[in-house]
Structure formats: C-alpha cells, structure tokens
Amino acid sequence: MGRDRFGELQGYGGQDDTAIELGAFDARHTGYGNYSSSSNNNNIDNNQNHNTGYADGKFFSVLDSAKAQMEVIDENIKQIAYWHEQALEATSEHKYHQIIFDRDNLVSETNGLISEVKQSLDTLAQTVDDPNIPKSQRVAQATRQQSLAKKFSEQLQRYHQMEYQYSKRNRERLARQYRIARPDATEEEVTKAIDNDQAGQVFAQSVMNSNRQHEARSVLRDVEERQADIKKIEQTITKLAEMFVEVSEMVNRQQEAIDTIESAVEETHGHVESAQKEVKQAIVYRIKARKKIWIAILILIILIVIIVIIVYFTVIKK
C-alpha cells in the first residue's frame, strides 16, 4: 500500500509498504557441448554421427519443453485476466489485497516461464550455426525454431494487450474517483494527476474535513493502491514490449539464416546435378568407345579370316 496521505495532512505519520515486484525477464544463453574427434578417419565419422544424433535429440528435447511451458503460459494468462477482472470489481479492501497477492504470484511465475522459453529459443537458434549438423537438417530445425518463436511472439502480444486493457480500465476508474474530488478538472489534469501520484493527494484534501473520516481513509487507500498497481502493470507492459522486439528480431535473423542455408543447399544440389550429368555423359562416351573397340576388333577378325582364306586357296591349295 502507499502512504497514508490523509493522515499526513491531519498530522499523522505515514509508512511505505513494499510493492510486490513482478518477475524480471532475464534470459540466459546456453549452448551445446562439443565432442573431440579422433585422428582416425573412421573414428571421426563415428564421432560426427554421434554429435549429429546428440544435437538432434537435444534440439527436440528443448523444443518440446518450450512448447509445454508455452501451454502453461497460455493458461496463466487466462487466469491473470480473471484476477484482473476480480480486482476491478472488488469492493472489500481485504478481498482486493488477496486478489492482488494471488495475481502477483501468478504473474511472477508466468514471467519466469517467459524467460525460460526465451532462453530455450536462444538455445535452439544456436543449432543453425553448428557445422557438425547437415545443412538439410539445420534448415528443418531452424524452421521449427522459427515457427515456435512466431507463436511465442503472438503469445507475448496477447499478454501485452491484456495487461494494457487492464491498465486502461484501472486508469479510467482512478479518473472517475479523481473527478469526484475535482469535478472541474480537465482531461489533461486528470492524466497528469494519475501519472504523478497526485490523485490521492487531491482526494485527501477534498475529504479531510469530512465527518466520515474512516470511509474517506479507506477510499484514499484504494486510490493509492490502484495507482501503485497501474505502475506495476505498466512495468510489465514495457518488459513485454521489449521481449516482443527481441523475439521478432530473432525470427528475422532466423529467416536470414534459413535463406542462406537453403541457398547453399540449392547450390550444392545444382553442383550434384551437374556432376551427375557429367558422369552420365562419361558413361555414354565410355560405352561408345567400347563399342568402337569391339567393332574394330570384329573388323580385324574378319580381315584375318579373309586373309587366311585367300592364302589357303592361293598358296596351300596349289
């Protein structure tokens, strides 16, 4: 809760409560382990096959884990939206505090999951640069990673939009309470008061002489707490926007990597086709050459037979 400004204006001391912080989006990068290869050619081939299989298994393990976490995030976002609705409708101070406590715990858990998914996406992205993996396999993995990153980006957008709508409705509620205290306030003055923590002060000043001090103090605390809640939500909105930009940049980088690998694969495929054509031509030339040799041998045999016949009838016969 915020300071008891109503008490301060009447000579009472105020005390600050510590707001529940929302989880931070810190993403750490992890990579794959490398395996040393033997000098023996057979061992090198075996190690490379082992590395490829390990990297592929690791990739799908991280991919499946990230998908499962995103499913939990979806459910959490729905529950957070429910708590937001309950917080807006809460009339009891005790009930409001319990709702905010439960919601903030869930927000902290969700933000932690978001950080883990971002970390998993960073880990998956590293496979594109792994030279031990065949290019075709790298393209397939990069495409899966990019698809998951796009879904994650859409998920962040939904979360961001939900938090924005809640913040907007909370600000509208504060604006109505502010206008009760200052009916002549302009829209600009209302916005400035909410942004600069002046709403509670103005309200306190308007009710400090009221005989219903207990009720006035309760309403003042509600104004201050909702104002603090708006700040927390706006911090989350800012972090979600930053995360969205990072993931969008990751998707773009991954697309560039996919295009580069596919281009290299197509170029290699073209070289293979060209080599196949040359081999086919060489086989045709070889067949033709062999055919010519056999024809020459056959002609030589015929000539020898003819010579033998001539010699037989002209020399031996006589």
UniProtKB/TrEMBL annotation:
Compartment(s):
Membrane
> Which residues belong to the signal peptide in this entry?
none
Query: Which ranges of the sequence are coiled-coil?
Result: none
Chief localization = membrane
| UniProt superkingdom | Eukaryota
Keyword set includes Thylakoid: no
Which molecular-function annotations from GO does this UniProt entry contain?
SNAP receptor activity; SNARE binding
Which Gene Ontology BP terms does the record give? exocytosis; intracellular protein transport; vesicle docking; vesicle fusion
Q: Where is the T-SNARE coiled-coil homology domain?
A: 220-282
Keyword list, A-Z: Membrane, Transmembrane, Transmembrane helix
Q: List the transmembrane segments.
A: 293-315
What do the Gene Ontology cellular component annotations say? endomembrane system; plasma membrane; SNARE complex
Topological type in the membrane:
Single-pass type IV membrane protein
Keyword Membrane annotated: yes
Q: Which family does it belong to?
A: Belongs to the syntaxin family.
- What's this protein's name? t-SNARE
Which species does this protein come from?
A: Coemansia reversa (strain ATCC 12441 / NRRL 1564)
